[in-house]
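Hi everyone, sorry if this is the wrong subforum. Our group has a chain we'd like a structural model of before ordering constructs, and none of us has done structure prediction before. Sequence below.
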Amino acid sequence: MNFVEYLFEHAHDPSKECILYRGGSLTYGDILSQVDDLAGYLTATIGRGNECLLLSENTPFFVITYLAIMKSGNTVLLVETRISDESIANIFRECHIRASFVQKKYRSKITNSDNVFTEDILEGLLHTEMSGTPCVEDNDVAVVIFTSGSTGAKKGVMLTHRNLCANTESIVQYLNLTSRDRICVTLPFFYCYGASLLHTHLRVGGSIVLSNNIFLGGAIQDINNFSCTGFAGVPSTYQILINKTPFLKEELPTLRYMMQAGGQLPNKYIRMIAETFPQKMFFVMYGATEATARLSYLPPNLVITKLGSIGKGIPGVTLEVINRDGRPVQPGEIGEITARGDNIMKGYYGDPEGTRNVIKNGWLYTGDLATVDDEGYIYIVGRAKNIIKSGGYRISPNEIEEFICSLDGVNGCVVLGLPDDIMGEAVVAVVQPNDAAESSLREEILAQCTQHLPSYKVPRAVYFVREFPLNASNKVDRQALVAEIEEKRRQQNDAKL
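Answer:
Right subforum, don't worry. Here is the predicted structure as tokens:
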């Protein structure tokens, strides 16, 4: 089934507001009409089975173009707005792009294509009648999302119409979404988590509020002004809201549910949110671009009793934590999270070897290390590629980060393994403090770690940053952070000479 047809199955009221933003809105009738027009144009000019690049912030232009490309039987290549010139040049070299749809403010990024459409050009295309929806197979690629994780090179994740339908259906089910729901969106749609917010609320005939504010405090205003029932964020979203806005003092009367994914939010923040808003459902979730968006969730009624858990697999997904022998782990034993279901990607674009490395016998090997409790609830202990090898020990940063974050004066913490001539890697803590004096806080952190952690887990050094560098998906950019701390180490060493 064409994914776009699936999305609009329940859009029975063309006059209902679909996309809302400061200064305007579009109804379902507006969206459907423009999507059909553009899909008709694409079908008439380039046919189906082609690749079209989309580069845009969260705008009506993004929504209409994104849906039209898929409906026409073509594939959307989603790229982040902060993409480097080198990265976009690589995409054009490796892919077969027939058309590029680019928000006007980013037009200068596209230098090697003649078939480029911006918002104003698009307006002239929206008058082509569509003669039926092109037939697509469930396994046809609907979208390629270029990952923007905190580490490693970008990979093009190929998601099929079946993948998108399956994951959307699962999320709608466990969130219990209805046409009355209205989601406030701050996450970019080119990120799989952001895209899932668009998908799920279109599926139920709900509404999407585009909250494109530089400062997250504006999201609070949008939630109240637009009477939003839902909100979603990554860890940095909630840490910023809690530490730099009056978020915890707000009533947010219309809000029904909040969601968190895209990394581990420190337990102290989860507790703050759950205890401050006991009448609102707070979903802790886990996912991956390779799984279309979502793999697991923790029911809100268990957020405190299972604090730190990512829950169990979503409907339609089998989730297992397996040891090196390929068997499910026993409680307390550490293994790798694996997943199976219709939401698992077709593979990496142009990288069959990379695909074979992560999909084995139909199972996705996530690279995330975890353990389970006696009831089967999963707890992530770290990412395999982030494990620190120091003095013969294999150290997960997560435990150290969680402990340091629990201390007074600490807003956030990232633990890194930096090259060390003696230990191989040295454990280093990078801390975002509040108003406490750095010198005294550094001493307190080291003293508390020495008292409560094994000696090999005690950071060799503590560095402070005002803000963590974030990637386009608002996750901590570990590569950029390593570079920043390495420069600080170099400067300190130079000063000693």
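For your construct planning: The domain at 3-372 is CATH 3.40.50.12780 (Rossmann fold). The longest strand covers residues 410-420.
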